[in-house]
Amino acid sequence: MLKKILSISGKPGLFRLVSRGKNMIIVESLLTGTRQPAYSNEKIVSLGDIAIFKEDGEEPLRNVLIAIKAKENGQPVALSSKASNDELKKFLGEVLPDFDRVRVYPSDIKKLISWYNMLLEKGVDFETEEETSGEEVALSETQVKEAPVAKPVQAKVKAAKPANVKVSTIRKTSKDK
């Protein structure tokens, strides 16, 4: 379910993917329930693609959200947005003990907590594993090697005359002979 929940840079809250268009997608705000377009020039990230830095790799956001839910017994996180940086790092240290304390900023932890509370409030199920649809199936190596290669198209270009340019001719006079 997290693949269809989006974060859009510059817009508050989270959004659910409703429909796809040619150069945009239609999203529904989890905060207000209103639908609006999101264009391809905006930074749009699926929560299913986000991970938290660890000392030896990354932990998918889904696993971190499940760990927070287990720690909080299915209740919202009680930390306020005005909690100190030490309190935020202590909280995430209890949930994910080996998170990278250098690359994970307090603002990231605040965003994580607000996302968790919002997803919990709206009843979004982030615990079930998502199945890949036909669009998201990766090609095997043999399919990639055997895929037809498009031939380059040779375009015929006609040389254009510059507009409004007078061509003067040189006449030979009787003196030049």
Assign a percent range to the helix content. 10-25%
**DSSP strand content:** 15-25%
Total domains? 2
CATH class of the largest domain: Mainly Alpha
The tally of helices reads: 4
Supply Rg.
29 Å
What does the secondary structure layout of this molecule look like, with pairings?
Layout: E1 5-8, E2 15-20, E3 24-29, E4 35-39, E5 44-46, E6 51-54, E7 57-60, H1 61-71, H2 85-95, H3 106-121, H4 141-146
Antiparallel strand pairs: 1-2, 1-5, 2-3, 3-4, 6-7
Describe the structure.
By secondary structure, the protein is of the alpha+beta class. It folds into 2 domains: 1-49, SH3 type barrels (Roll); 51-127, Orthogonal Bundle (Arc Repressor Mutant, subunit A), CATH 1.10.10.1650. It has 4 helices and 7 strands. The strands form 2 sheets. A 5-stranded antiparallel sheet has the order 4-3-2-1-5, with no helix packed on it. Strands 6-7 form a two-stranded antiparallel ribbon. It is globular. Residues 132-162 have low confidence and may be disordered.
